[in-house]
Specification:
Blueprint: H1 3-18, E1 22-29, E2 34-41, E3 44-54, H2 67-83, E4 90-100, E5 108-118
Parallel strand pairs: 3-4
Antiparallel strand pairs: 1-2, 2-3, 4-5
Length: about 130
């Protein structure tokens, strides 16, 4: 992971914690992929994909979460749920977008959280 990616995840975790979320896991790996953050609040178990982009990109950070990436995140989340039982929590997939200054460093200009950015219905194998 790049230094910028790590700093974006640190930033996202800090924002979520200030909003009352408990960060349960960071960088959970399986052979299918990685979950950047797993957070819990008010009966929700959020699998959070963190994406950072500078202002020089035409697409939003969230648009970088392609269908293939969403499928990997869903498979990884299912493995997470097998290892960490949370029947009482409602799982959700969020994308945390960070907009960075154009200078190539890490200055977060803004962020946006897309709650429920996608769900199981987006996978080919779910239907």
């Amino acid at each position: 992971m790049s230094d910028r990616g790590k700093r974006a995840e640190d930033y996202a975790a800090a924002v979520l914690e200030r909003a009352g979320w408990h960060i349960e896991a960071r960088n959970f790996h399986t052979r299918y992929g990685e979950l950047d953050l797993v957070a819990v609040k008010d009966g929700v178990l959020a699998f959070v994909e963190v994406k950072a982009r500078s202002g020089r990109f035409l697409r939003t950070p969230g648009e970088a979460v392609t269908k293939a990436k969403r499928q990997k995140l869903i498979m990884t989340a299912l493995f997470y749920l097998q290892e960490h039982r949370h029947e009482e929590l409602q799982p959700r997939f969020d994308v945390f977008e960070v907009i960075l200054a154009r200078d190539g460093g890490f200055e977060a200009l803004s962020h946006d959280i897309i709650e429920g950015a996608f769900d199981l219905s987006e996978t080919d194998w779910y239907h």
